[in-house]
Automatic annotation (TrEMBL):
The lineage of its organism: Bacteria, Pseudomonadati, Pseudomonadota, Alphaproteobacteria, Hyphomicrobiales. One of its GO terms (biological process) is cysteine biosynthetic process from serine. Belongs to the transferase hexapeptide repeat family. One of its GO terms (cellular component) is cytoplasm. The keyword DNA-binding does not apply. This is Serine acetyltransferase. Residues 23-127 form the Serine acetyltransferase N-terminal domain. It is an enzyme of class 2 (transferase). InterPro entries: LbH_SAT, Ser_AcTrfase_N, Ser_AcTrfase_N_sf, Ser_O-AcTrfase, Serine_acetyltransferase, Trimer_LpxA-like_sf. It holds the Pfam family SATase_N. It comes from the Bacteria. Keywords: Acyltransferase, Amino-acid biosynthesis, Transferase.
Amino acid sequence: MTATTAIQSPLRATSRGTAEADVWAALRAEAEAALIEEPLYAGIVQATVLDQRGLPQALAYRLAHRLGDGDLARLSMRDLCLAAFEADPDAGAHAVRDLVAIRERDPTCRRYLDPFLFYKGFAALEAYRVAHWLWHQGRATLALHVQSRISEVFGCDIHPAARIGSGVFIDHATGVVIGETTIIADDVSILQSVTLGGNGKESGDRHPKIARGVLLSVGAKVLGNIRVGEGAKVAAAAVVLHDVPPHTTVAGVPARVVSRLAPEEQPALTMDQSFGFGDGI
């Protein structure tokens, strides 16, 4: 359930060093505070977090509550999600890194409980991981059902065969499309209305490869089997049809390099969408 990338040094200590037990303890403490803050929502918080044994069980419960429907009831969806998380020894670490990524990069996020309960991007990403597991178990029908429900409920369409690393932040999620042969490395940030799609009707390996630390800004379109290099920034509304060099900013239709970034810059973490050159008014 991970992108196949080489072992790399930590991008930021808290991203890789935060333990699952610590996040689960913080999530429970935040849930207990929320019981007092909003009694009307207390039952949901109690059932979703405080009544669960750990992070995988709580996540399976929450996804099932949001994705279960007439075709696949909540109880069946919960069992499916839990089976996927328990089968992958890294599932808890992925969820933790995804949650920490939101806390680090989203200035509106002040506690783990908010993305866990409400953020579409986090829910879509963790549900994709269930669909990805199903796909590789040869259970394509169920994998595609989960993909369909993610699209219907969260407005985010991720093919279950795509490979996505951890520490990935999908902000808002609305309108995000990630194609079948896409590979997204760790520590990438993706904003709303981003498309990682094919270019024409070719078959086989036909979707983008997004390297570590890339920022894909609002409405960016990356089309075809092309590579966006490590630490690059794709500006808002850019249409990318060719490889993007590492540590550069590309903008425009079609996209071209408009600035160079220092190797130590981390656009996926800073979330700075400026071009760096010729930004206009």
